[in-house]
Specification:
Helices cover 75% and strands 0% of the residues. The chain has helices at 2-19, 29-44, 50-62, 74-88, 93-104, 115-124, 133-148, 154-168, 174-218, 224-269, 279-300, 311-315, 332-344, 346-396, 398-412. Helix 2 (29-44) packs antiparallel against helix 3 (50-62).
């Protein structure tokens, strides 16, 4: 039987090294060796036969091998692995059944019935009565994060441990109660102390936040003169932008009417060979009209913006939250968070207002620049078009051309 235990140890070590996921930082080979060691320690303090001792050690080696297959109900898989190993070594079915029952006894929430089951249950939870309890429990906490995606705060983890030690766990053998219960009490006391410390720190933090909130509420509001300056400047910029858009729309409408008249009246007459002299003046007139329309559209066409920002942009104060183009694709909760951060920071708030004023100025500069160019093109186009018609009429009929020239000059002269 001693040879079988040596073979079991060799098998489990190689099995864990080859099959166990590295995420299992607690339920791994180290834990198994610890359970085997504690099983042997309890056995030495109890009056058990050699056969019973060997059964317990075998079960201790295989009790967590099922973690290589799955987490839930891993004991069932551990039984399968142990049974396969024992049958390959020609072990009797009676021994296999007993080892399987002992492995199943380590299932969480199970109440051990026999002395052997009590031994392996106490060995499996021996870390509770260990001086290394804090370190080992942290490994279990990390394993939950890695394998279950269950992330607990320090307070939540302390609650889990306190609940387990006070309600779910108890030692079953006299040896464990005698030798490990005292350390278990110390571990529980430390957990309660840490919990109280966190609650005290939380209370102080809440008090500090309340004090800061009170101080912020007492901070004087921005001076009325600064508010008025920003309000007037922004209103003036918006008014100028509206004026520019109105002027561009007027030019667009006028040129659209002109194009309609050219297409409906003048172009239809060009089919007549006798009106060939009107082709070039019409082309010139149409080109300048289209150019004026294009420039008018460019003056009023909005720019496409990304509409998103990151938390880093807010932290670095790179994004202007007062301009819709910077947030129109963001979610409401993200925008509310960013606005809250900006309102907490006086410099960020005034910086955003200043940027808003500056970029409005850039937009106005672009609009009025294009608008000036549009009016210039429109004016030059009208003059050149009229002159081209005069020249065309003059070349066609000098006398009629002079009359057209006189009429045009009269219209153009103030």
């Amino acid at each position: 039987m001693d040879t079988l235990i040596v073979e079991a140890e060799k098998f489990v070590v190689e099995f864990f090294n080859s099959n166990l996921d590295s995420k299992f930082v607690y339920h791994n080979l180290s834990h198994t060796k610890r359970v085997v060691s504690k099983t042997e320690e309890i056995i030495e303090g109890l009056s058990l036969s050699e056969a019973e001792k060997e059964l317990l050690v075998l079960a201790a080696w295989f009790h967590d091998t099922g973690y290589t297959k799955r987490m839930d109900d891993h004991e069932d898989d551990g039984v399968v692995i142990a049974t396969d190993f024992l049958r390959k070594h020609s072990v009797s079915e009676e021994i296999i059944t007993t080892v399987s029952q002992l492995i199943m006894a380590t299932k969480m929430g199970y109440t051990p019935q026999t002395e052997l089951e009590k031994v392996i249950c106490d060995a499996d939870c021996s870390h509770i009565g260990s001086k290394n309890f804090s370190d080992l429990s942290e490994l279990l906490r990390k394993e939950w994060e890695l394998t279950k995606d269950r992330v607990l705060t320090e307070s939540e983890w302390l609650d889990e441990n306190i609940k387990f030690l006070t309600h779910s766990h108890k030692f079953h053998t006299t040896f464990a109660s005698k030798n490990w219960e005292k350390q278990k009490g110390k571990n529980l006391a430390k957990l309660l102390k840490d919990k109280k410390k966190i609650e005290l720190e939380g209370s102080k933090l809440k008090q500090k936040k309340a004090e800061l909130k009170f101080k912020k509420e007492k901070i004087e509001l921005p001076e009325r003169g600064i508010e008025t300056m920003f309000r007037v400047a922004l209103r003036n910029h918006i008014t100028l932008s509206d004026i520019a858009d109105t002027k561009a729309n007027i030019l667009l409408s006028v040129n659209a009417i002109i194009i309609s008249m050219v297409l409906s009246n003048l172009v239809s007459k060009l089919d007549n060979p006798s009106n060939d002299y009107l082709i070039y003046p019409t082309i010139i007139f149409t080109l300048f009209t289209v150019a004026s329309m294009v420039l008018s559209i460019l003056a009023t066409r909005p720019n496409v913006t990304r509409g998103k920002f990151s938390k880093e942009d807010v932290a670095n104060k790179k994004v202007n939250l007062l301009f819709f183009g910077n947030f129109h694709k963001m979610k409401l909760d993200e925008f509310e968070w960013a606005m809250g951060e900006m309102m907490k920071d006086r410099d960020y708030l005034y910086g955003s207002l200043t940027k808003d004023l500056y970029f409005l100025g850039l937009v106005l500069n672009r609009k009025y620049g294009l608008l000036r160019t549009t009016y210039t093109v429109f004016m030059i186009g009208i003059v050149i078009s009229v002159l081209s018609f005069v020249v065309a009429f003059y070349m066609r009929d000098p006398e009629a051309g002079r009359k057209v020239h006189d009429t045009a000059m009269a219209m153009l002269t103030p």
